């Protein structure tokens, strides 16, 4: 996970990791915008849930929502020193899903 400058590494994700929960849960100070970019340094298999599908799952499994929110709060606290607005991409539109992919 990198900041908008493309050089500052905010986090390194491993197998089974996820991203996009801060935007989906609308917990960040950047509103419903992405708070960072994710760039793969190698081959990655990505699975996508739309915002609607994610909310359907969270309604069905409220304990999962509580856990996801707790993890999101920890992530937000970790980066409190550098406000998320600085790491946010220069977009003002809503996040359409967890991730968008482009093939080559």
From TrEMBL:
Residues 85-104 are annotated as: Disordered. Gene3D superfamilies: Jelly Rolls. Keywords: Ion channel, Ion transport, Ligand-gated ion channel, Membrane, Transmembrane, Transmembrane helix, Transport. Residues 1-75 form the Cyclic nucleotide-binding domain. GO terms for molecular function: cGMP binding; intracellularly cAMP-activated cation channel activity; intracellularly cGMP-activated cation channel activity; protein-containing complex binding. Pfam families: cNMP_binding. It is a multi-pass membrane protein. It is found in: Membrane. Its main location: membrane. One of its GO terms (cellular component) is intracellular cyclic nucleotide activated cation channel complex. PANTHER family: CYCLIC NUCLEOTIDE-BINDING DOMAIN-CONTAINING PROTEIN, CYCLIC NUCLEOTIDE-GATED CATION CHANNEL SUBUNIT A. This is Cyclic nucleotide-binding domain-containing protein. It comes from Clastoptera arizonana.
């Amino acid at each position: 996970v990198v900041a908008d400058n493309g050089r500052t590494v905010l986090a390194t994700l491993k197998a089974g990791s996820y991203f996009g929960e801060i935007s989906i849960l609308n917990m960040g100070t950047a509103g419903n915008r992405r708070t960072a970019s994710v760039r793969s340094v190698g081959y990655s298999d990505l699975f996508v849930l739309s915002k609607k599908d994610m909310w359907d799952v969270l309604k069905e499994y409220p304990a999962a929502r509580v856990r996801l929110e707790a993890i999101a709060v920890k992530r937000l606290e970790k980066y409190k020193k550098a406000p998320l607005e600085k790491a946010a991409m220069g977009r003002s539109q809503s996040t359409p899903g967890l991730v968008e992919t482009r093939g080559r």
